[in-house]
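During the no-cost extension, the postdoctoral fellow (Dr. R.K.) reprocessed legacy sequence entries with the updated structure-token encoder. One reprocessed record is reproduced below for audit purposes.
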Amino acid sequence: MSETFEMVAKTLYGLEEILAGELLSLGANDIQIGRRMVSFTGDKEVLYKANFCCRTALRILKPIYHFKAKDADTVYKEVKKVKWENYISLDKTFAIDSVIYSEDFNHSKFVAYRTKDAIVDYFMEKEQKRPSVRVNNPDLYINIHISHNDCTLSIDSSGESLHKRGYRVDQTEAPLNEVLAAGMILKTGWKGESNFVDPMCGSGTLLIEAAMIALNIAPGVHRKEFAFEKWIDFDQELFDRIYNDESQEREFTFKCYGADISPAAIEIAEKNIRSAGLMKYIDLKVQPFQQCAEAPNPGIMVTNPPYGERISSRDLLGLYNMIGERIKHVFTGYKVWILSYKDECFDKIGLKPSEKMKLMNGSLECEYRCYDIFEGKNKDYKKALNEEGEARPSGFERPDVAGKHSFERRPDRPSDRSSDRPSRPNFKTDRLDRPDRRFAAAHAEDDSERAPFVPGKRYFGDDRADGRPARKDFVAKRPVKKRFKDDEVFGDKKKFGDKKFGDRKFGDKKFGNQSFKKPFKRRDDDDLED
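Re-encoded structure tokens follow.
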């Protein structure tokens, strides 16, 4: 039986659950989801497959030593305890990468420097020779991760980031990361059951990743090498078997359609598609989005319009207004997925999204939104959904990875902490202290039997609409603020018409000598406070 060991897959924020599902399908065990990472266990075959087959992984690390340290000298002593001859020989080169989240370590490069010293001194004391350090394309990539005082020493099995698939020969001004593109498509649940459309395709990354997903071609098939191919224990026969296995590939009977306003972008996209060997499955044309008059059916649209950050636009808001108009009139029956950065851009689309999620595009915290495009009114569409008993007709279900497999989350490191914290109560919507809500909660046995609330109706005895007796007379009224007439005076000083209360003025938002930015607001004594 093959030896199993711990591994860590790094990814982009928002793609952790998709990556966990990919690892599960490859045979990984003990899967735990963290922040921008997924930890798991497996053997050498799982390690090779994770690098070769995972579309949403950036790199796969193999931890070899865990320890605690408060300073760089302790790191040096602990790193020297590792039996480095099991991982590197004297004729090989290595490089150190460090990631630090700790107040005790102020400089990540100094930690990397002391880690290098420990490895070099280990071999000098034992062999009187030392391996060389090489920054670019070394034989062994070593990673040290420090969170507070917890240190993890790992070897990197990927080398170059896995988003570098190997098919891209040219790119436009702001190309989409391949891992993000694959994650966006997998988030929709699409796997080739319909046509795929990107009307602003740029260098064609979304189209290529979509075609590879539809055909189930492994994303690592175009890479020249992986770091684990230089390891001492590399199994060439095992990796060749994984590389040449085409049993999981499938037919794609539809097509991917791409367009862009720039002829130069279409030319670059064609080069990349040809490099990936996918010209048969992708159609390209130079066309502005506003001239799009028809869409192939059935289909799904996924696109990444300009944000106005790296690619400028003369009329950015006008662009998004046009996008909303086109998808509403041309892409009927589609699910349209759009990744963008600014809320005001989404507002200009003028449609209500059915789904929203956060994704990181480089350093930008973007939002990924889905729009169900249908004919007629929203009310009629929802009624049709209920009659058919389907959650999403004519679309595709998102994979419920976490719900189905119940992956565990890891809160043990600051960099790995889950953002799924329990939300604080919303006292504006969660309270039951208003008369109408108290009444409904007191007399309804469950939500299905709750009688309709009629403002102004008097409820007593058996006059309830559902025949149940009320506890006491109650006139159902919505709470209103008390109003005073201009001539209504209380005592000699209190006058509410001109908003005065003794020397304290409310009209100009003052309370004694203190000014308030917001007007004074009454609060009931039994209100809960956040």
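Residues 61 and 156 are 5 Å apart (CA to CA). DSSP finds 14 helices and 24 strands in the chain. The remaining legacy entries will be reprocessed before the final report is submitted.
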